Amino acid sequence: LQSKEVLLEDTDVTKAIVDFVTQNYVDKLVLGVASRNAFL
Fold it and tell me: How far apart are CA 15 and CA 32, in angstroms?
C-alpha cells in the first residue's frame, strides 16, 4: 500500500479533485477533514 498526502488549492474544489485524480491515475481516494476544535 502506497499513500501520499496532497494539498489542492483551487476556487473550484470539485474540479481540483477530479483533475488531480485523472492526471495522477488515482485508484482509491480517501478524503478527510480536521476534527472540530483540534487545537484547544
Answer: 17
Rounded to two decimals, the pTM is: 0.63
Tell me the pLDDT of the chain (40 aa) as tens digits. 778 888 889 999 899 999 999 999 988 888 877 777 655 5
Residue 4 CA to residue 32 CA, distance in Å, equals: 13
CA angle 7, 13, 27 (to 5 degrees): 65
Domain boundaries, the chain: 1-40
Task: Return d(Cα 38, Cα 40) in angstroms, integer.
Answer: 6
Nearest to 23 by CA among 12, 15, 31: 15
